[in-house]
Each structure stands twice: as C-alpha cells, then as structure tokens.
Amino acid sequence: MDTPILEMKSITKEFPGVKALDEVTFSVKKGEIHCLVGENGAGKSTLMKVLSGVHPYGSYSGEIYVEGELQKFNGIRDSERAGIAIIYQELALIPELSVYENIFLGNELTDGMVINANETIKQSIDILEKVGLRVNPETKIRDLGVGKQQLVEIAKALKKQVKILILDEPTAALNENDSDNLLKLILELKKQGVTSILISHKLREVLAIADTVTVLRDGKTICTLDASDGQLTEAVLIRNMVGRSIDNVFPKRKAHNIGKEALRLENWGAYSPSLGRDVLKDVNLNVHDGEIVGIAGLMGSGRTELAKSIFGNPDEYRLSGKIFVNGHEAKFSNPRDAIDARLAYVTEDRKRNGLILIQDVKQNITLANLEELTRVGVIDENEEIVVANRSKEDLNIKTPSIEQFLRNLSGGNQQKVSLAKWLFVKPGVMILDEPTRGIDVGAKYEIYTVMNALVEQGMSIIMISSELPEVLGMSDRVYVMSAGRIKGELSASEATQEKIMELAVDY
Amino acid sequence: MTEERITPGKSKKSSALLELLRKNISQYFMFIALIGIMVIFTITTKGVFISSRNISNLLNQMGYIAVLAVGMTLVIIIRHIDLSVGYLAGFLGAFSAIALTFWGWPVYAVLPVVLILGVISGLLTSTPIAKLGVPAFVSTMAAGLIFRGALLLVTMGTGTIIIRDRLYNAIGNGFIPDLKLFVLPGNRHFLTLLIGLIFIILYIVNAVKSRNKKLSYKFDVLSPSLFVMQLVLVSVIIGYIAWTLSGYNGISWSLVIVLLVVGIFQFITTKTPLGRHIYAVGGNPEAAELSGISVSKITYIVFGAMGLLSALSGIMYASRLHSATTTAGLGFETDAIAAAFVGGVSAAGGVGTITGSIVGALVMMSLTSGMNLMGIDISLQYIVRGAVLVLAVVVDRATRKNR
For labelling, which of A216, A270, B105, B255 has a CA lying 20 to 30 Å from the CA of B163? Predict the structure, then answer.
C-alpha cells in the first residue's frame, strides 16, 4: 500500500482550560474523498486549522506528514506551499474585485511591475473551465451567487497547484442544485487526482461521495470507516458521533410543577433580506412556567435566529406568525418591548453582543434595568453596589471587586455576569443561547444549578444548546431544529442522543 | 477636576492611595501634565503666564472651544465624529448677528432661537447616521460644507457684521458685577472670592455627605486622613483659582457658561441613566441594543446636544469678537477633537469623561497662551501642539493597558 498523502499523528491541541484535540490520528489516502464528521465542538475545525498552519507548529503536539515528509507549518503560506488549500464556510473572496483578480490574488502575473491582465484572464478561463464555472472572468465577485463564489474559491485553490483540498461545510449555505453541482465537481476533481477532505453535517451527502469517513468526538478520533462499499449507513455514523456516556455532571432538580403556558409561537417565520432566504419557517413551540425547553440542532439550523427573532430585531428580519406571552398576543418591535414583557435573552456570543467588556461588573449587571435604581432621574450608585454585590454572592461570580472590568474575568465568570444582568430584569421567560459555551466544567455545574433554582421558582427557560448531553441532562422537553424548521419535539423520557441527531441531520 | 473613585471592594486601607492613583492614572496624568505645563510657562515668562490677567484671558479665550469639546466628547464616546461643528458655530453666530443688527430682534429672543436652530441642525446632520448607517465622517463633513456655504451666503452682501448690542457682547467679554460692599486691598473682586468660598463649602458638604452615605452602607471609604487630604487639595485648587481671578475683573460670563455646561453634562454622563446608555452604546452597540437601549435614539440625543453646544459656541465667539465674520468657525472642530483626545477620550468608543476633555482643552489653550507670551512663531506653535496631541494619546494608551 502507498504512503498516505496526509498523515496526522497524535495531534494534541489545548486551549486555556480545554483540550480541543486529544491524540488525534488522521490519515488520508492519495486521490480519495475523505469526510470528517462529528458534532459541533468535536474538534473538526481545530484539526483543520492545525493542518493549514493557522495554529502554527509548536502550538500543538504531534506530527504532520505530507507525502511522507514531516511538516512544520508556521502559517497558511507554508501549508499552501505544501499543496494544502482550505476553503472555509465564510468565503475569503474580495467582493469588489473581479473573478480573475481574486483567483490570482497574491500570485499576480506581472510584466516587470505591471499586472498582465490579458495573460491572467486567459489563464483564468482555463482554470474556470476545470471547475465548470462559465462566467466572464471580469465579473465582480459580489455579482455572483454563493454557489458560484464557492467555485471561484476552488478555482483559486486549483491555481495554487493544490494536492489536498479541504472544504469546511461547503454546502451549508447552498441550495440543493448548487450543492449537487459542487458534489459533482468534487468527484470530478477526484478523477483529476485531487485529494479532498470534506467536513459536513449532511450525512446523506457524506454517504454519497465519501471513500472514507473519520468520526471525531470530544477531540478524539473515534473511528475511520470505509464508505466505498456502500455498507455504511447514517445510523452507524450517528451512533459513533454521539456515543458518549452522560456522566453525572448535571445537578439533580427537585420535583416541581410545570405551570401554565408562558410563551407560545405560532407559525413563526423570519425572512432575512440580507441573506435573501427564510431563516425560520413554520415554527410552532411553547414553554410553560417552571419548564426548561431545550432547542437542539446543528450549526446553522436556525436556533440563534429563533432567539433573535423572538427578542425583537425589526431591522434584521421580516417576521411572520404570532407570539403569545402568558396567553396574550404580543408584538415586539425592539428589544425594549421584549424586556418590558419580561423576556430576557442571554446571547450566544457574550463578547460580541452580550456584555460591555470595557465596563465594570456592576455597570454590566444593572444596564438592562437602570430604572429600578433611578431616583428622581439620578442613578443611586450605592444601591447599585448593593445589587451588584448581591448578584456576585448569589451567582458566585469570582472577581476581586465589582469594579473589575469585564474583560479581566474568565469566560465562566463573564457568563455569570450575563446571567446576573438578565436576572436583574426579573424575567418570566429566559432564553439562554449556548449558556455554557467555552467555560470550564465547574462553572458549567454552577450555571446548571442556577437554572434549576430558577425553574423551581417558576421561571421558564428556553435553552439553545449544541451539546447533546446538556440538552438531555437539563431539558423537560426538547425541540430539534434543522434548516430553520422544527423537525420534532421529544419529551425528556423519549429523547436520546441518537433520536435528536437523526432529526438534526434531516435536511 | 479631580475625580475620586472610592473602591467599594475589599482593598486594604494602607494601599488605598496607591490604588486610587493606579485606577485613575490616565485621568490624573493629564492633570499633572497641565500643572507641569503651567509651571514651565510661568518660569519661561517670568511669572507673566500665571498672572491674574493672563489666566483670566486664557479661560475666556477657551470658552467657545471648551463647550464644543464637551459635546465632541459625547460624540466620540458613541464612536462617531462631528466635523460640522466649526461652520455650524460660524453660521449660527452670523445668524445671531443678523437677527440683532438687521432684524432688530432683542437678545432674549435671539439666544433661544439660535440654540434651537443648533439642536435642529444637529438632529438633521445625524439623521443619515442614525437611520441609514452613513458614516458620521461623511455626513458631518457634508453638513460642514453646507453650513460653510450658508455662512458665506448670509454674509455675502455685508461682509463682516459688526454687533453693537451690549448685552450680547457681554457674553464673550463681560464679567459678573461685584458686590460693592467694601473695597478689598488690591481692588480684588469680592463676589468672585465669595463664590469661590461657596464652591468650597458646597464641595466639602457634598463630599462628607456622600462619605457618610457610603459608611451607612458599610462600604469601604478613604481613610479619614486621606479624605481630609483630598478635601484640602481640592479646596486649595478652587480657592487658588478664585483668588487669581479676583485679581483681574473676577469671573467672566464665559467662565460661568463653561462651568454651567460642564456641570450639567458631567452630571448627565455620570449620574443618570441617559449617561450610562451613552457609555453603553459606545462600549458595545450590539449589547446595548439587546439591553433595550435604542442606539439610534442615543445618536440623535448626542448629536442634538452637539448642535446645541455648537450654537452656544458660535454665540460666544461672535460675542467675543463683537462681530460675525466670513471665516468664523474655521478649525474649531479640530481644536475640539484635539481637546477630547488629549483629555483621554478613546476613538474606539465608550471611554472618556467631560472633565478629562476640559483638562485637555486647558492643556491646548495653555500651550497657545504660553507660547504666545514667549513670542514663539506660529509655525512652531502648530508643530508643538501636534506633538503634544500625539504624545498625550500615546501616554493615555500606555497607562490604560494596565487596567
């Protein structure tokens, strides 16, 4: 048997507090289509970043061999020189430049100091031919659809004499037709001798084109399966993706009563003008007092969009359908309306749109409900300190002082500040988007404990989560989303990792 | 102008002073630099710089820039810029001159109308910014061009308009009257000293009250000795300023206006929900919006206030010159922006104080005044001011990193 074109041996990569990759072994044969699958956070993207030099040599342990030679990449340029090209979900094209300019970006053909446009265009036509894209090379990128842009990216990679082409979720943003074309192209490139690594959540797609499939879970290689004989099934893949034991990481919740309906969505839909498509369609769901409802689904399934659309984002989406709060129809034209209706939204990305990192703990905690502290137009700063100190105690926020800037706190403590901020508005319904993302196990447990205490007091929680054990461990009921729709509703007793994953990969 | 922040955490008392200094180093730094600059100029001008007459002139000259710097601080805090303020001030100054001189309006009608026009102009300038996301740089530059055209248009037929209204001219040149109860040695201005004393008393009463309030909450406060030191220091500064001013005509109306503006805006930014909202929008607009704060509403309010202060600046300037000229307002925006940056406002948004920017304005104005007294050529003056601006921002960034 030949030496594999790519071998990654015992790759371990640690981030502060997290082991993203743990002794991962990954081997790709020359000329094959190798698919990499796993849940969100399984380590697929990190592995590819190690391979492409984004995480440079020395920041991980383990060895990378390309065609039998040990590689020490210090950046993307090095990996490109070795013939590796990676195409991310977010395309790295420059919209205002033309197709040919993008293909040759960084490798411009010149006569002395001047770009030779004619020669560049001529060569572009040949390359575009290879990827089956028939457009004028002088077209600007922004005038092309996403599907065609993806082909330009691939053309750009081919221009660099790529040996190994890595595609990260290439079809996530494409419609069916464009997806089919892209998959055909990958098969076509295989005939021309290009090796491809494909990361995908769409298992049907994986089974259709893969020669080999490697499954990652929790930063470890679970198995590498031969798919070419057609014996591999979705069920086998799912079992390997999720087959994790749920340890005793979830605090016990006291038995409590689930009360009346707190929030209901009817035929809820959201159209995004900037994306030009529906991000949510026909969503029907509800949550009761004292209930935790989990929303599961893979990246891009519309979970965050659901939270944002509920919480009043009139500029971002065009909404349809009805929303009921405590049985009364409501309409939120901005987040203030939602807060006034006693909704709270702890965002997924606390640094981007949750907290103000250059302000201190107390100012962040009180921001959404300053009225409560205001006497005749003036903020009572002493009361504010009392409130902040109480939150600090209640949620066990570890900070030397409530005057500490948020950027100096750890992720877990930042998340607790986020929770404290929204608890201070005294909400009836809390939407928690990825409440434990990027925080350590201890802080996770504390946050779960807080959630349990809240529902025992009668609050409703909608918990959006990518982590299946969390969904199963915390939820009274689970909705599974895919492609902007609710694909199924499972009670706590019937929900299993396999069942959720089956619904989540149902496109 | 010192801004004390008493740490409610569990800091040890022995290091309280150091802690206080460390936390507010960037704020104190410019204040210390200001004192340094003043000492240097006092030496190089053999005491002329620190004379009552010069200090009084310096404060009066900076009035129209100081009010702009206050507004500009808010604009930069919410991550924008306003390049239109200079010509808006020039145009509204000319408008007030025309209303007084040609239309025969009384002063008490002219002032409110001009101030309201300022607010409206600010709101109009910010509409493309708040509603459509047009960069403030572009929108306000366009508005500046329009105001400049408007200024030329209204002064086209007449050229410079001389203002003869005494009341109006007193705004930029007059001083508060004295209580002629008795004559002080050196002909000092009695009311000015009295006001200085009242300020000191108010300050002490307020500080003691606030300390007692904190004690009632069982928060940590400054130790008694440090607290007394602080009271003495601030009282000495206020007293010294009053004493100096009392030696030359006393407090000017310009200074009264500046103190009022600073007082009101300092209060709004530090004590009210509106102020918090402004800082929140500057610190993270997306998070602010999701916390129920309307970013566009805050944008309108801030630019409206900027317009109001531009109008005030225009009035102060026209009044000071007794006239409206075709070049009034030229470069005001640069001076205001420079004052804000020297005073520690961050271009990245969310950081900066009103008092800081006033210190910044004082630094820049002291440089101009001191170098004028030394007879330094204007060409060198620009170079020095440019160097100080950049140096101040570099130091500010360096001290801020430690927090």
Answer: B255
